[in-house]
Design a protein that fits this description.
The chain is mainly beta and 531 residues long.
Amino acid sequence: MKSRKSVLVIGLLTLCLPLTAQDIYKMEAFSSSDLNGTARFVGMGGAMSALGADISTIGTNPAGIGMFRKGEISLSAGFNTQPDAAEFYDINKTRASFDQMGFVYSAKIDQSSRINFAFNYHKSRNFKNYIGVNGFGTDGLSQSLQMMDLCWVGNRWLDLSERADADLTTNLAYAGYQTQMILPSYDERGNVVDYLPCEADYYNYQRVQWGGIQDYDFNVSMGWNDQIYAGITLGVKNVNYHSYTDYAEFLPDEYGQHHEYYTLNEEEITGTGIDFKMGLILRPIEESPFRIGLSFSTPTFYNLTTGAYLYMNSPFQQELSNGQIVNFSEYTVPVSGYEYNIRTPWKVNVSMATTLGNFLALDAEYEYSNYGTCKVSYGGYDEWGGYSDWWSVDNDKALNNEASHYLKGVHTFRVGAEARLTNKFYLRAGYNYQSAPMTNDAFLNLFTDSPSYYYSNNTDYVNLGKVNRYTCGLGYRGKHLYADFAYQYKEQQGDLYTFHVPDVDNVTNRLGAAKVDLNRHAALFTLGYRF
């Protein structure tokens, strides 16, 4: 029999690149976007889809580019900070960012129509955030309980000393076995009949994410009679995502002392995506500045590659029957690699805008996207032996069912206003609301038939709440040169669960949620030149 001895072991971090699971939380991350672009666009809360004539509308309503009557070049940069963050893994809570660069070329076709061409780069998603929770009480629950549950497969307990059985569960469960966080119990025939987990009093948790999604948008648009505008945008995306997590549990012994068990996870996702956007803006009454806008965004088709490592260290050693002590308290998952596809949902935007004289511009809009329609698939090999991302795919039905059940339709409302203070100076304000992307009972389900979950390295997840964004800005307009400044405050909370121990309904988590703030301040500057 194996027994545990309370000996704290200090381990060295070992790096490798194993498979890592995809889940509904990754699907949400690649379906959502931040409020970013030019300072004018941000200062108005992103509400410019019907007003147009700002290069950032290339990504919300492509017809807005058709309202340019001159050429333009613009550059935007700024910084953002998370007030509740701490410096962790050499990532500071305040970071500078290059957010936008683009140009528009405008040409007349005849006296009543014009054609415009545009290109714009902007960071549509900034993944930087930090979550830290220390001393959170678990009432005896431990991550090892989830490791133990993952050893019950096919109505029997797996024997993780056998390679064939170890391949039927996750990296995490196998690492728990290797580090004695779960110990098997045997019958007289030597068959595994149960696993013994640990008990924990509290945990410390730190996670930092960084990187982003960079959009490269190419647009062609037209305007007719200053009343009808139409445009189309081809978007190419580059993904660069990183995450590092440090999780520690404190396990009591019979003497009342606590010994530390911890895991380290690092993950990297890279890849590319492509989408299309189509838009229309109409001014139905010739004598009125009132206009309405409508746009559609196709799903983004991502092809992604991910890599990570899992390192686990426990305070236990193995005592053999002859009294020999063998140190098996450290484990690192073997090297592997992983490639997959994500298809995000469609998006529709309806907007309206008007101007009052030459001193006030107003825009309001509504956007809807059903995150539950996200899909994950795995590329195959076509009949010529080449790798195919989308025409020869294997859909992850289990994971896609999880998405349809726990991810929701997301409603976004934006309103913005721009007031002309003088001939050259403008004041702006905006509000941007986005509903919660997932249900309150969403969880990281490691017990489905999804092939990705067999390679899961983590048990933690955050159920995100609604987003409120408050913005304001100032602008200067010269004959050719212009400059804008914007400030944005993003307010969002989430429920952190470091692991999932199901209640009798197999959904409710017995482990309580740690409330976390993801609030962020951002400032943005834009310089532009019109020609």
